[in-house]
Amino acid sequence: MEISIIGDYKILKQLGSSSFSEVFLAEHKFLKKRYAIKVIDESLTQNKNFIKSFEDKVGFLTTIDHPAIVKIHDISNVDGKYFLVMDPIVNDNNEVLNLEKYLNLKGDVLPELEIETILRQIASALDYAHKLNFNNQPLCHFSLKPSNIFIKISDHGLKVYISDFGLSTIIGEGKVLFKAYELLVKEMAFSENLIKSDSLDVSSKYKFLQNYNFLSPEQKFKDLNEKLSFKSDIFTFGVLAYYLIAREFPEGYFDLPSKIAPEYKLNWDLLICKCLQKDPHRRPDLLVEALNSFLSTDTSDISSLEILSWEEVEKKVENAMQMSFEFSSEVSKLEKELEEKKNNEVKFTTIDESDKKPIINPQKVERPTYDADPGAIFNKDLNVSYYQPKKVEIKDVEPILTEMVIIPGGSFSRGSEKGSRDEKPKHKVNINNFALDIHPVTNEQFVRFLQFMGGEKDSNNNDIIRLRNSRIKRTGGKLIIESGYAKHPVVSVSWYGAVAYAKWIGKRLPTEAEWEVAAQGGIESAEYPTGINIDHTQANFFNSDTTSVMSYPPNGYGLYDVVGNVYEWCEDWYAYNYYDTSLQEPEDPKGPPQGVYRVLRGGCWKSLKEDMRCSHRHRNNPGTVNSTYGFRCAADVS
User: Fold this and answer.
1) pLDDT tens, 491-540?
2) pLDDT of residue 209
3) Which of 232, 320, 419, 595 could hold 216 in an S-S bridge, CB 3.0 to 4.6 Å?
4) Of 282, 299, 327, which closes a domain?
5) 517 CB neighbour count, 10 Å cutoff
6) Which residues contact 189 (CB under 8 A, 6 or more apart)?
7) In this prediction, what percent of the chain has a pLDDT beyond 70?
8) Are 273 and 415 contained in the same domain?
9) Is residue 419 part of a domain?
């Protein structure tokens, strides 16, 4: 299409093309502002049914407003040409960088953090769109692929933008695929009969695969009487995640990410296998929650998978799923940003001079013991062997203790009316005096405990820590901390390991209520430990790694890293509706009497700002280890 002016826009250059449109960089004649103009192909605009569908539905697309979705500002028709006016996603040289080009520039393997950064932004955009009502159903993309995902690189990192939202629905999913196949056949015939070259053949095949291989099974084998659901986008997301890691498509028998990229620490196997379920109903509903849940789970059950059939993969994944979160729809995160809170008078809880030196009650130190094997009496009759934990030699190892501060008791607000369902209702609790470590337990502190224990298992054979996911390594029988990480918080510690360490030094884990009170730092109903806002100079979040403890300013109680750096295990069992009970029993609440998960608090180095809120709750299986999980200890005060 050779055009120089369309409506009020002067065409500067062509940016790209697809089966049904061409995209140009243009400048508004009067505003002198640049836009991207997507001109719809005449093969569509000459169809009356398409024009009716376009005019009825496309106006909705201008209402979409998400930071990871290309913004459409206007829709217009000039001289029979229909076009969309959008933000131009170009660099300083007015060049487009889509995801496919970016992958070619980066080489064969992307850093794991980059993959997660890209996918989290795409997941957020898809979750947002799926909640919108478009044509009496969720707004779906139905044609997500690297060519319509754009990347901008800035000093703040990678920014992702998705284009063509809703166009597949307006054009028709079948037409999109048919057009791609039609072009493939024509170009292959042209290549074979006239040029005798493979260049066009390879190119056309690739374009076709870009459309076809990212489709869900129900799109490829669609029943014309059935409507597609947003779960097709979930499948495509799984294909895209696999493609970013493997640079190939998950077809037939395929290697899982743990084999392709064993250096990656996150559980990509589980996330991808759940998204690629053949049955749409078994795929996740919310991708952001899927990322938070599945990537952080124990990989031990599926990390050794080779090339398996889908039946074998699903069987393995179902076992691993017992360790993953089962999010209720009632606890899904709200997508709306928190409204700016008015900066009322900051009220600090006063601490008497006499309280500056904590008077901590003596704690009973519980050393590891081993119970007798109750099945030993059957050894002779059954002639079977029973597991007997290896006895460790108790060594004279002195711990490196952490300074503690006293948190004065009183009445405090707990929870939030603006957070997730498990943070509601906001209510008062009464907490007794207690003491808390000023920073999370570090690698050099935890190494002393491992030396004392003589291994990474407790007396009940529970994992204390998983060294391969931590900064502590065992070499030649000796425990070595990676260079520069001695003062970093220890990670990959299970809840059992945190409890065992606390008992070893005569302390305990804080209750969830104690942790939240301490996080507020003496500020009444604080949103963040720093007050009504928090930034990257005040906590380690949305970053690439942990930092040394005490690298950021303390809160009002003198506690460092109370949010960010690592999630911290609490003593309590987790229940999403526990605050309903705590509201009725506010005296020093200690959580539900039983449960499946233990509470984690405080966000971590890779968390978003939302997770830095004092009231934000997290949880996982007590045996789970993760590169973002650590802890600090508490003690009773007289």
Assistant:
1) 999 999 999 999 999 999 999 999 999 999 998 878 999 999 999 999 99
2) 60
3) 232
4) 327
5) 27
6) none
7) 76
8) no
9) yes
